[in-house]
Write a structure and sequence with these properties.
Blueprint (H helix, E strand, L loop, with lengths): L1 H7 L6 H15 L46 H7 L2 H15 L8 H18 L6 H16 L18 H11 L4 H11 L34 H18 L4 H14 L3 H15 L8 H25 L7
Helix pairs in contact: 4-6, 6-8, 7-8, 7-9, 9-10, 9-11, 10-12, 11-12
């Protein structure tokens, strides 16, 4: 759609050309399939979006290139007749759309719709068994999203109000981990940030690399789904902790990310509990590094609560 907009708005094109394009686009818009460029094969090419199993419509306002992914039932024999090419293309389009940077919309309903449609799309993707071809697509898209510019939700720089990538990154992490652990962790760690909670300067000792940031609640934007988003951030962190058991360096990296990006004391406490459970699973000896992670997160919970108490009760500063 964006490409066609650039073509149609080209100031050097003649009016006759634009009229011809408009006629062709209207013709294509009236059919239920995706035609070739010349428009002569509209009845022969099945809709790309049919390559994924039956499911829900993608978020038309916020899912970017996923806008056209309106899923319908596709009989199994269709896959056999047409091969996996349409499936792989549909999966790639879905990954591109899920990874796009997009601003959180206004209003409770619109924000809930963003979360719901993202989760529904990921749910449909989870029904697909990954083969070597699809794994290559996942790796390619992960690298692209990490290196891309402002259109990527996993890019180096994102807008403060952009929709967080926690849910998508957790799915990406689990898919990539068996095949490319380095890329899986890099993507998940990049997605851990939640810039909307980092708009205020921290209180207390800022010399520590993982100091606790205190944010005045009325300075938050109107993110009605913030509690859900923080829960998804916590789930992403817990997934990484579980996968990193036994790897000292990765555990330290995940711990640092948690201390830097998670601001909710209740979620930090939950992660401390998760780390303790993971460390003491099975009959083998406890994982000492994970136990240290659990202890440090527990101490951070106490510190967070203390800072919160101090910020809400100025009288206590005298003590």
């Amino acid at each position: 759609g964006a490409l066609w907009m650039c073509i149609v708005l080209n100031p050097h094109c003649k009016l006759e050309q634009k009229s011809s394009w408009l006629k062709q686009l209207k013709k294509w818009n009236s059919v239920d399939v995706c035609p070739w460029e010349d428009g002569n094969h509209g009845n022969e090419l099945p809709n790309l979006t049919n390559a994924l199993p039956q499911g829900a419509n993608a978020n038309q306002e916020n899912m970017g290139q996923c806008k056209s992914l309106e899923y319908q039932h596709l009989p199994a024999h269709k896959f056999l007749e047409e091969g996996d090419s349409y499936l792989t293309l549909a999966v790639e389009v879905a990954l591109i759309g899920l990874g796009q940077q997009r601003i959180m919309p206004d209003g409770l309903y619109a924000q809930e719709k963003v979360c719901r449609n993202e989760e529904q799309l990921i749910s449909k993707l989870q029904e697909i068994e990954l083969d070597d071809t699809l794994v290559k697509i996942f790796r390619k898209q992960a690298v692209f999203l990490l290196e891309a510019g402002p259109y990527s939700g996993l890019g180096e720089v994102i807008h403060r109000d952009s929709v967080p990538m926690h849910t998508f990154a957790k799915y990406l992490f689990t898919c990539l981990l068996p095949h490319d652990a380095e890329l899986a962790y890099k993507s998940a760690l990049r997605a851990m940030r939640l810039l909307v909670l980092e708009s205020m300067p921290p209180l207390g000792d800022t010399s520590r690399p993982h100091h606790i940031a205190s944010v005045v609640p009325n300075r938050y934007p109107r993110w009605f789904t913030l509690s859900h988003i923080e829960s998804q951030q916590c789930e992403l962190a817990s997934t990484m902790l579980t996968a990193a058991k036994g790897d000292v360096q990765r555990l330290e990296t995940v711990l640092e990310s948690i201390q830097k990006n998670i601001h909710s004391s209740s979620h930090i406490f939950k992660l401390a509990q998760d780390a303790f459970k993971i460390a003491t699973l099975m009959d083998s000896l406890p994982d000492i590094t994970l136990l240290k992670v659990s202890l440090e997160l527990g101490l951070q919970t106490v510190l967070t609560a203390a800072l919160s108490l101090l910020s809400s009760n100025p009288a206590l500063h005298k003590l």
